[in-house]
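[Meeting: bench + compute handoff]

Bench side (C.D.) handed over the final construct sequence. Compute side (W.E.) agreed to return the predicted structure before the next meeting so the bench team could plan truncations. Sequence as handed over:
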Amino acid sequence: MSGKRFRIAVFPGDGIGPEVVREALRVLAALTEETGLSVDIREGFVGGAAFDRFGEPLPEQSLSLAMESDAVLLGAVGGPKWEALEYGLRPERALLGLRERLGLFANLRPVHVFEDLLDASPLKRSVVEGTDVLIVRELTGDLYFGTPRGVRVEDGQRVGINTLVYTEGEIRRIAKTGFEAARARRRKLLSVDKANVLESTQLWRDVVTEVGRDYPDVELGHMYVDNCAMQLVRNPRQFDVIVTTNMFGDILSDEAAMITGSIGMLPSASLGDGRGMYEPIHGSAPDIAGADTANPLGTILSVAMMLRHSFGLEAEARRIEDAVRAVLRDGLRTRDIAGDGARPAPIGTAAMGDAVVRKIRGGA
């Protein structure tokens, strides 16, 4: 292990965010004890927790903390408590602000079905078995950032406006990310768009095709988003890497999460030219906050992605992933992946964290 000390900004966020982040940090602490990995962890506030304390979802001190770090670990933000706020003050603006200010244009969402969770999926075992998909979502364009936007009055009635905008450069850089990811896997890339009705995604298709000429070793395909949504539940094994727009990626990855049995199982990495931000793809789930029932595995696996993508520590990342796999093999389940009448009974958030920590330390 090198002597480098890695700086990590941690934003637990709202709802179940603090609970699942706590368990992920315990796993990371166990790993540092076992391997000698040196980390400097500093916590801050974003989202609703930041609004309650500072009156804004992304205070300057939190942004500075993120900018000064090598990587960011995020819980989840948002909840009904803050839904009445104007858009600029809602917790989700912190997430979008971090992506924009940190230059995080590529979101990697692996959809891997664990062998021991085949029966947790609402789809048939024969459909989901062997599924291993990587969704590469563009993160700083599309309707989420395009202007003009907002609600205004025209001819006496309210009109809601969002603008879908993509530049050639934005498409080209995310396409390269997709091709590079496919080259490191099974060398198949599917680009998902709606080019038959949206001119912006016709440009998407054209640019991805152009970039593909630089990757003759990667098989490139194109699919409309509605067909892709259907194919994900019909035959998810046909996919290797999917690259798509911000909105389509947001929707498709949540759909794909259910193939694994629970959205609580899926980690993600948001990457740019420098630091990365890591978070589970689930929301803040305020209805179960504080109940010790949330699944921390998505957050724990996000730490593994951080070790791999930001720190280049493949062996350490695999150690966490192997620990999660071993815990599932032992039959331990949180409520979301337990199924009806599960035996043994589901365990809580902290108990699942305990189990992964024991595996990291080599315990039975």
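W.E. noted at the follow-up: Residues 1-103+284-364 form a domain with the Isopropylmalate Dehydrogenase fold (CATH 3.40.718.10). C.D. will use this when planning the next construct.
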